[in-house]
Amino acid sequence: MNRLNKIQSNLILFVACILSRVVTSIYHIEDIDSLRFALAIQEFSIIKLQPHFPGYPVFCFFSKILFFCTNSIGVTFSIIGGVSIFIIIYFILRLADIELNTFRGVFCSALIFFNPLLYIMSNRYMPDLFGAAIALTGIYFLISEKNFKWSVAIGFFLVGTLAGIRLSYLPLMIIPILDGLKKIRQKKYLLLSFSLGIFIWLIPLIWITGINDLFSAAFKQTIGHFTDFGGTSITENNWEMRLLTFFRSIWSDGLGGYWFGRHWITLILSIGLIYFTFSSTRVIVNNIKNDRITQLMLFSMLAYAVWILLFQNVIHKSRHVIPIVIVLLYLITSAQNIVIWKDITSKVVSFNFMISLLIVSTVLAIQHKSPSAISKLKDDMISLDPDKTIVSIPLVEYYLKTHGVKANYININDLSQGMDSDDLNHAILIGDHSALLGDNYHIISDSSYYHNPYVNRMWPVIHSFRLQR
Question: Is the whole model's pTM more than 0.90, yes or no?
Answer without folding.
Answer: yes
